Amino acid sequence: MIDYEVIILGCGPAGLQAAIHAARAKASVLVMGRRENSSISGTHMENYFGVSYTAGEDILRTGVEQAKKSGAALVCEDAVETSIDGENIILVKSESGKIYRSRALIFTIGITRNTLNLPGEKELVGKGVSYCVDCDANFFKNRKTVVTGNGSAAVSGALTLIEYTGDVSLVSDKINVDEKLLNQLKSSSIRVFEGNAISEIVGKEKVEGVKLKNGETIETDGIFIELGAKGAMELAGLMGIGMDDSFKYLAVNRQQETNTPGIYAAGDICGPPWQVAKAVGEGCVAGMEAAKYVKKFR
Ligand SMILES: Cc1cc2nc3c(=O)[nH]c(=O)nc-3n(C[C@H](O)[C@H](O)[C@H](O)COP(=O)(O)OP(=O)(O)OC[C@H]3O[C@@H](n4cnc5c(N)ncnc54)[C@H](O)[C@@H]3O)c2cc1C
């Protein structure tokens, strides 16, 4: 009647950790997704407890091996459709058209960071262009930095960065944040260039500056593009899963349960901070809770 008790959508840190815990709790588990599409693939990490440096690809490869060893099955395909039938059965359709049936579903499909597609942006990613203050602020201690964006991701990013370096400029078309954040910005030493936008990121081997649309240039060692994230919400939204107050992320409780019985979520899809440590913590809880939930159908 069912193919797997728990299906996990996503093969990143949250999904793999959920798989390890659910499978070790004796649930039958399927993980869907491509590990090379995880945000941590192709980059490295220095801020995970007990690991001073690791390439993302290394932890993902080991995570896949651990999930398999724990008893989980993996398919390198995305889900294209999810639905619930009337009898507590969840249906997941894969890219190749196969339909899997499960009792519980865990969304760990991550997020896609919004980019500006400016001249110089793609070439200088990791050489001064960053999309994540929480991940990279530490590399810019006492260096010149620029943050761009209009919303709370940009303003709170700039406020975080000013704790690492005294030299932060915020470039924004129009700042659009709540009053509390705006007051914090006003009382900080961040230089604000409002009513302007970046037209080009300048530098050969590394970022040297940003050109503004009004012709000005700001010298900088780093540019943080903090436009928030595109949620991969289509699948979850269609199932009527509740969103948080920002309407960008899935709303979950401390058991990682969504508003729908049997459906859990973990990792970046549940909102910032977008960090591996948070993703695996939430994945662990979601995996254990889903394994507990499916037992009642045996
Ligand atoms: C440049 C960069 C540097 C970073 N540096 C750090 C750092 O130093 N330290 C740190 O802690 N964090 C860092 N991060 C953040 C970290 O990568 C994320 O927080 C973490 O990967 C989130 O894990 P996740 O499992 O929630 O999502 P992801 O790792 O993004 O995984 C999402 C998974 O879902 C899959 N998926 C998507 N859609 C579907 C679908 N329809 N069906 C099935 N599967 C689907 C994807 O293929 C992927 O396997 C960095 C991120 C970036 C981009």
Q: Distance between the terminal alpha carbons, to the nearest Å?
A: 12 Å
**Percent helix range:** 10-25%
Secondary-structure arrangement, i.e. CATH architecture of the largest domain: 3-Layer(bba) Sandwich
Mean pLDDT: 93
In DSSP terms (H or I, runs of 4 or more residues), the helix count works out at 7
Which shape, going by the Cα principal axes? elongated
What is the radius of gyration? Answer: 21 Å
CATH class of the largest domain: Alpha Beta
Residues in β-strands, percent: 15-25%
Report strand order across the widest sheet.
5-2-1-9-20
Number of strands: 20
Largest beta-sheet characterization: 5 strands, parallel
Q: What is the compact description of this entry?
A:
By secondary structure, this protein is an alpha/beta fold.
List keywords for this structure.
5-stranded parallel β-sheet; alpha/beta; FAD/NAD(P)-binding domain; 298 residues; 25% strand; 20 strands; 7 helices; binds flavin-adenine dinucleotide; 24% helix; elongated
SSE blueprint:
Elements: E1 6-9, H1 13-24, E2 29-32, E3 44-45, E4 54-55, H2 56-70, E5 73-75, E6 79-84, E7 90-94, E8 99-102, E9 104-107, E10 111-113, E11 129-130, H3 133-136, E12 145-148, H4 152-161, E13 168-172, H5 179-186, E14 191-194, E15 198-202, E16 209-212, E17 217-219, E18 222-225, E19 229-231, H6 234-238, E20 263-265, H7 276-294
The structure holds flavin-adenine dinucleotide.
